[in-house]
Amino acid sequence: MTNRTLIRFSIYYADQAWQELIKNVIAPFLKQNQAFIAHFYIFLSNYRGDHIKLILEPEKGYKTALINSFRTQVLHFLAEMPSSEPSIRFTPGKSIWMNYANNSFEINNYDTYFLTDASPLLDFTRATSRMILNQFLSGQIEEMEDIINLATHLLLKLISNHVDTQTNAFFDSMVKQLINDLGASSDSETIDQVLEDSAEAATHNKHILLSFCAYNTVDEESSLEDQIILSTWLIQGQKLISGEGGKKFIETFCYQIGLSELSKLYVLNLIGHFWRHSRQS
């Protein structure tokens, strides 16, 4: 992708209202302009302000038209339906950078590093983008807790065919690395509480987590489109999680759906605890 043009849009909008932003702006725009967009990528984030990043790879000759069209639609939406204050606010002394203003719009913020090369993660990132879009449009994601549940659900589906000591070691190593990384930014009590809460959640929700492991994409309540999107996501994810780049895959997925480092620790420790103490019992 180094020789291709990318357009990076960032819409700073409180995360509790992301569903409105996707339903009223992002989804209609993508549908209206699908003939002019080769690929699109969606990233959720609370870094420097709650926002959704939409990255487009336009067909040749349509870059300017897409920028102008999306800018017009977003600015109109922000004026008509501004969101409340975002959940993450700038705290003096806690961050080098100030947050972007809520209800603002930026173009070409360069912080999606793995989209700049021909990484095997690209196909998966595209599949995750469609999954995110579909989950919001179907009403399955309304708040950040839903995203944490979705991450747990999808990752358990992916590893359901890898029940062995290597799976345990894989999650143990990721959790230990996260704890080490978080040591510089979070106090030990907070980290310990996250570990305790996630272990407790794994213990008390064993049957729900077992149902998450079912590698069955057919659901009476899901549409054919839902099933196709999930199947595509699972196929792309299976290629990556079982390979040498498994950790990079997990990090990319968690980054794309907007999990903070503490939320990522919660999800990975929950899965690891469940795998050790419930799945094999």
Q: What can you tell me about this protein's structure?
A:
With 281 residues, this protein is α+β, with helices and mostly antiparallel strands. 56% of the residues lie in helices and 10% in strands. It is built from ten helices and four strands; from the N terminus they run βαββαβαααααααα. It has a four-stranded antiparallel beta sheet. It is globular. It starts with 6 loop residues before the first strand and ends with a helix.
List keywords for this structure.
Thiopeptide-type bacteriocin biosynthesis domain-containing protein, Alpha-Beta Plaits, alpha+beta
Secondary-structure-based class equals alpha+beta
The proportion of residues in beta strands is: 5-15%
Helix tally equals 10
The biggest beta sheet, please? 4 strands, antiparallel
How are the strands ordered across the major sheet? 2-3-1-4
| Count of DSSP strands | 4
The residue fraction in helices comes out at 55-70%
Weakly predicted, low-confidence segments: none
* Mean pLDDT value: 83
Secondary-structure element order, as H and E? Answer: EHEEHEHHHHHHHH
How do the strands and helices of this protein lay out in sequence?
Elements: E1 7-12, H1 18-32, E2 37-45, E3 51-58, H2 63-80, E4 104-107, H3 121-137, H4 144-159, H5 165-182, H6 188-204, H7 206-212, H8 224-241, H9 246-256, H10 261-279
Antiparallel strand pairs: 1-3, 1-4, 2-3
Helix pairs in contact: 1-2, 3-8, 3-9, 4-8, 4-10, 5-10, 6-10
Organism: Mucilaginibacter rubeus
Protein name: Thiopeptide-type bacteriocin biosynthesis domain-containing protein
